[in-house]
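Give me the fold.
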Amino acid sequence: MSEVLIRLDNIWKTYTPGEPAAVRNLYLEVMRGEVLVLVGPSGCGKSTTLRLINRLIEPTNGKIFLDDEDVTSINASDLRRRIGYVIQQVGLFPHKTIAENIATVPKLLGWKKDEIEARVDEMLELVSMDPATFKHRFPKELSGGQAQRVGVARALAANPDVLLMDEPFGAIDPITRDKLQNEFLRLQQDLKKTIVFVTHDIDEAIKMGDRIAILRDGSEIAQIDTPENILTDPADEFVESFLGSGAILKGLTLKKVRDIELQMVTTLKAPVLRDQALKTISDNNDSFALLLDADDQPLRWLDERALNRTNQPIEKSGRPIAVQLQPEDTLQDALSSMLQSSVGMSVVVDRQGKYLGCCTIESLAKLLVHESPTK
């Protein structure tokens, strides 16, 4: 079985005779199981290339191969049912429930009713949405982040080999976007889908991609390589300019919080008596403690000064945890979070928000010094 799952061979796309081609003489290979990110300036043809792969638009010249099959000679609708597609605007059918939206392609493929119902529940659970809560709702009842999760669930419902993603997180606020990126990376560790991902954001490309293709106008490939190699050895001035300044800081996106050895700090679990909290803090070397709720979710940083300064309940003393990291966050996220922290370290939690440990400047520096960056 070939390692190349998708191949675009000498692809051209011209909309108007005599006008410059939107895609010119493109040759591109996408390896089985990888996330290939297409990134480049606005209007360079990256979204056009994505639509050519599943033949939402037809190439003017050239051939497209999926698993060594020339798909330019088969029915385009049949092809699209084999390829998941996620777009920035989500594109959910407003008059259909969430369950009906997710079931769209399985129904077209003739799946049995009980199989579809089971798959809908499975997909919602996969994207961390409770089926009992969400499957009977309509798209207008969802937040932007929830709608985007449903879009991913719908794209994966028929278990396609290929997933095309056109700026899927671009219209979402930064905090939700970061959470969705992390969720997607976690899913990909298990699913190992072949994904072509379009973005205009080089930081997102570095975070999400196994390989990155930086495109000039007309989908001309300026450089295609791993994020590490592009950052350390840009092919030319165009690539250097697109990367921008701060390449070293961008390199922090190549490592994840899960790669760092977490530090365990002194914790207190609410409810706790003030005298007990003061004694615990005075007995440890850090002079502070992390307050957890009954479910082990971080609440606040406590120290002696905060506890002695007020008669408020302990749950309202000290400083709240402003930012929490997850294992899928990057070291760039970790550094930013640590700089905002009142104690110079960041709390790391699992998907349920339970405390896992803390990320420190020392652990980050140790990793960068002793290991070369890898994805």
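The chain has a mean pLDDT of 87.
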